[in-house]
Amino acid sequence: MATKLKTQISQECKPIRRGVFLDLRRGYFVALDGTHGPWRLREEAEQAYQRLCAAEAAKVAARNVRVAWAINANQQAAAERKNAARAAAKVAAGAKESKRIARAEGKHAIIRESYACARRGDFREWARLHLDSRSKHGKVYELPADADCQLMWLIYRHRPEGFEVDHIIPLGKGKHHQDNLQYLRASANSRKGASLKYRYADGDRIEWKTVLLAAGVPMWRITSKY
Length: 226
Known about the structure:
By secondary structure, the chain is α+β, with helices and mostly antiparallel strands. Among the domains are: 2-49, no CATH class; 145-222, no CATH class. The chain has helices spanning 2-12, 39-120, 123-134, 149-157, 186-192, 208-214, 219-222, and strands at 13-17, 20-23, 28-31, 36-38, 163-167, 181-185, 205-206.
């Protein structure tokens, strides 16, 4: 049957495209798969198929455009969020720096006022202002009633070079009192922090009584009542 169909196609039909031939006498199309019919219908079917393919291609292109737009929109939104986060971080950093500067200026003003009190001889007010300059996070330290404020002023005034006045028991747990003070090397003081179990190395600390006696402060002035 297939051989007969091929023979008939080869004798009576004109090849149009691969596998499809045109019957010149009747205007019919004949295909190798055995299908046949009026050529006009075949042409209309192919045109309809081409229109369908074009519509599908248009849908695919539109979908690609939407996907690309969504990707761009997501990227743009992510970039805007990133820029907003950076701007917020800059604002927060600026506010933090402003607070730090304000605290530093306030601390320096308190220190200047405390030294003015010491020059006037009001050592208790100096000690109170000195405590205020050391307060952190709004915490206020109290000055003991039996604290010898003039003696503490002498301790701070005669501090040896390279050393800092340190509280043996930190202010959070101890008192701002002359018997709770010592001279501690600056590097050791930064390592000690608020620790109660710090192991001192040789030469890390000096008793303030020794320094004051060497500076010529009278013994009666050094004697503590605490």
